[in-house]
Amino acid sequence: MCGIAGIVRPDGARPVEEVALRRMARAIRHRGPDGFGLALGRSAGFVSSRLAIFDIAGGWQPMRSEAGGTLIVYNGEVFNHPELRAELARDGIATETTSDTEVVLKLLERDGLAALDRLNGQFAFAWWEPEPRRLTLVRDRFGIHPLHWSLLADGTIVFGSEAKALFASGEVRAEPDLGGIDDVFTTWAPRAPRTAFRGVQQLPPGRLLVWEGGRIVTERTWWRPDYSPRTEPAGELEPLMRSSVELRLRADVPVGTYLSGGLDSSLTTALAKEASDHQLRTFSVAFKDPHFDERPHQLEVARKLGTDHHVVDVGPAEIANAFGDVVWHAESPLIRTAPVPLYLLAKETREQGITVVATGEGADELFWGYDLFKEVVARQAALADPESAVEVFSELYPYFEATGAARGPAWARFFLEAGPADDPLFSHQTRVAATAAVKAFYAPDVAQLTAAEDRLGALRDSLPPEFGSWSALEKAAYLEVTTLLGPYLLGPQSDRVAMAHGVEARYPFLDHRVFEHSVRLDPSRKLQGTDDKIAVRELARKVLPEGIAGRTKQPYRAPQAAPFFDGGAPEWVDELLSPAMLRATGLFDETKVAGLVRRCRAGRATGYREGMALVGVLSTQLWHERFCGPHADVFPPEEGEPQVFIKQGIDQALERV
Amino acid sequence: MSNVEQTTGSAIKAEIRAYIEENFLYMHPGLEVSDEDNLLALGVMDSLSFVELVEEVQERYGISVQDVEITEENFGSIGALTRYIEGKKA
Predict the structure, then answer these.
(1) Using the beta-carbon criterion (under 8 Å), do A402 and B54 form an inter-chain contact?
(2) In chain A, N or C terminus with fewer CB closer than 10 Å?
(3) Looking at domain B3-89, does it have CATH number 1.10.1200.10?
């Protein structure tokens, strides 16, 4: 697990400077605190900051194959690398290290991009073929690891795990992209390839692109969630999950787990405990506010499984104080504070000496656990008989409460009137409607500019041709995986906050074999009435007590507006929300925000939408200040000797000139 | 209508106006809303705001709002809502 970056120019007119690569390395050092490496040719340079997990001594990057002459910078893990290495050996292809990086490089040299289908893992990498001067960027199936790029006017491509590496290169300026920001206030995060920065793109999950001669010559999807009917039987979940967990425990360092106390992380932990050859260490976020806290459930699982358990106790002050750093790592405005406790959890995990954790992420999307899926069923039923669904609605989204009072009759109406049933985005209409509350705070010109782009229309246009033939729940699952899981849950709420402290998160449910199983599975094995994740619960009952296996989901969330307005809130909150700073940023209407702030101060902004609006405005102000404002962060060059410095054979065509 | 009832009616109207102003009108600086202005048409309220408003009305006035009663005729304006609450309390 690492951070990667690079600069490649179309010809030898301008050299790539070592100092620029060193600045890029410094910008992403948090992703790879164990050291950095460089490769520098005349007009091509690559950098890697490394978190050593496999082959601590031999796995340094950039890595070049002596036989094929190609080079890779690689972020992530291919868990089945021992099997793939053995296969290479049978083909007479020797490897010099035990790292997965070398296996990926040699598979690419042997099979080209067809090798991707063989990789079971989470990765983002850049593969450089010096002879045709061809750069290929690849991102894993679900988008677990990030990869950003920018194509400059002269054909130069600059890429990096995080956008800040691009800014550190000195080649790309950080400027707001209103469309990317508006995405955050539509579906919670910029939708790839868009980012919150103008001119900076992120490679969408499951995509690859090929740069050659100053142009993107190929860009294609190599994997995407596909719900088309399967002829093969689903098989059993248990052996698949055991295999997935076993693969994700592979590391040359100890692996821990995150334990939320819910079904998915408890099951992941139980399976990890069985497969682990050392005392398993578990890590949990607990909240000082009992309204959010799941501590008793976490302790019950930890006790039952006999793990070495650590708790990070999070209160309002911890959330407010860490929020600025979380926004910096997320590189995007946020509408929730929920990534903050996970940032603090990763910090504690690292301090406890654990750099790899397995989590339960992905189960709700694959096995239809979220309330969103029940909402779809209820709204469809209500189209025929409105009375039939009122009770179901009353059970949905407990965190959505406006005032903490019981839901009234208008609650069901909100769902019933959310939008037309023939809209491909039917399942997400209520989320989009609620999230749009933040847009009401836009400055008038921003409101006009963002309204001119049909954001939902663009999302509809991006749907695959087969989408229309899928069931309503499959459509909902596709949208959930592509608009929320990848862009938000695996990004700001997982990779970014874990890698902030050099911790790698792994997701057994997001093994592509488990996804394939979930699609083949009969729908009744996922959701039936209000019984969700049925197949997952059946497996959980084999390894956990009924109280845990049958537990109703408690959505993970954190206090929203309150932490920024109690006595101990940091000074920058007032400053960033002041009329002068709002005017300087120019994105929000200062009078409306003043009204919101007044209500927050009085403790009256307790509703779901106002909390989201406050977090949205404040995070946007922070994001702008740290990246785009006159006092934006600068990146000094990485000092010291790189662990690897490749200076020959990078730019063969140009070196011969 | 007796004096007591008149006082109650105007008090309800003032409370409803204060609630709408405090919770929703801050988003519309400078907008003047008369008692009979349609809050939906003006964009002051939407379906989620009604969730909050209906809750407030039930809690504050101790009345039970039925689904079929959530109409523009009953909840569409400050005046309409006042008349509705008065009717329910009568």
Answers:
(1) no
(2) C
(3) yes
